[in-house]
Write a structure and sequence with these properties.
The chain is mostly beta strands. The protein has a domain of 100 residues. Helices cover 13% and strands 43% of the residues. The chain contains three helices and eight strands; from the N terminus they run ββββββββααα. It has a four-stranded antiparallel sheet with strand order 2-1-5-6, with no helix packed on it. A four-stranded antiparallel sheet has the order 3-8-7-4, with no helix packed on it. The longest helix has 10 residues. The termini are far apart.
């Protein structure tokens, strides 16, 4: 039996007993993990459904990859920069293919989804006709002098230094 799993942004074809090197995963040597992102599974030329299918694996070691040298140079400017990088890897041994995902966890997620919190009603006691925006959202400082000064100001006017002057309405 084989499966194609996705982990670390890459896809791997695995079968029981295989050892693969993947991007770093959390855990120590000897820990068991499950890879739940199974893209394809089959036995020979027969393909199976991947709904609820997982791949069980065991961490053999946490290792580093080969060193990559990053060298930057600009000619005739005495500019040279040298840096190195070693990618973190996890070595996995595939134990089995075909374990089921936890159905209870999926059930809890489905039950929790319909229970969304209702939007809180608008605060009372504030004159919403003058301070509310077009969507009905009231600013936190609604009704204060600062908000009233801004609402009475002329459009495209620079902010005044000191106390704001009120213009007479025509």
């Amino acid at each position: 039996m084989f499966a194609i799993v996705r982990t670390g942004g890459k896809q791997y074809r695995v079968s029981p007993g295989d050892k693969i090197v993947v991007e770093k995963l959390d855990g120590n040597a000897g820990d068991s993990i499950t890879l739940g992102d199974v893209l394809l599974a089959g036995d020979g030329s027969d393909l199976k459904g991947t709904d609820g299918l997982t791949v069980a694996a065991e961490i053999i070691a946490q290792a580093k990859g080969e060193k990559v040298v990053v060298f930057k140079k600009r000619r005739r400017h005495n500019y040279r920069r040298k840096a190195g990088h070693r990618q973190q890897h996890t070595i996995l041994k595939i134990v089995s293919i075909g374990g089921e995902k936890q159905q209870q966890a999926d059930g809890d997620a489905k039950k929790a989804a319909p229970k969304k919190a209702k939007a809180a009603p608008a605060p009372t006691g504030i004159d919403e006709t003058t301070t509310a925006s077009s969507e009905g959202v009231v600013p936190a400082d609604a009704g204060t002098e600062a908000t009233q000064d801004v609402t009475n100001a002329t459009p495209n006017a620079a902010p005044a230094k000191g106390k704001a002057k009120k213009t007479p309405k025509a």
